Amino acid sequence: MSPPAFAHHLQEAAWRRELAMKFKCPICRKPTDSEADRDFPFCSDRCRLTDLGNWAAEKYKVAAESKMDESEPENGGTREPDPNHASE
């Protein structure tokens, strides 16, 4: 490799290291690196599969943004008239 090409290669490698994301594994809290760990954000295949099992066992919940208005029909169609409610 010529000197300018080698310098460019070193700059690119440094840039990749700066962009590498470093977090802790969500399962075991071990430090992980997006460049070094194939299973990122997990540290290992074991932790990745543990997380998948947690989702399958419904141990995680996704919060809903808003609850459906119970006065609205679910199918978007018309409601049956309420015999106890006088219509105008």
Structure report:
By secondary structure, the chain is mainly α. It contains two helices and two strands; from the N terminus they run H-E-E-H. It is elongated, with a radius of gyration of 27 Å. The termini are far apart.
List keywords for this structure.
single chain; elongated; two-stranded antiparallel sheet; 2 strands; mainly alpha; 2 helices; Erythroid Transcription Factor GATA-1, Chain A; 33% helix; 88 residues
How far is the N terminus from the C terminus? 87 Å
- Backbone shape: elongated
How much β-strand is present in the residues? 5-15%
Which stretches of 5+ consecutive residues score pLDDT under 50? none
CATH architecture of the domain at 13-56: 2-Layer Sandwich
Mean pLDDT over the full residue set: 75
Secondary structure layout:
Elements: H1 3-19, E1 22-24, E2 31-33, H2 45-56
Antiparallel strand pairs: 1-2
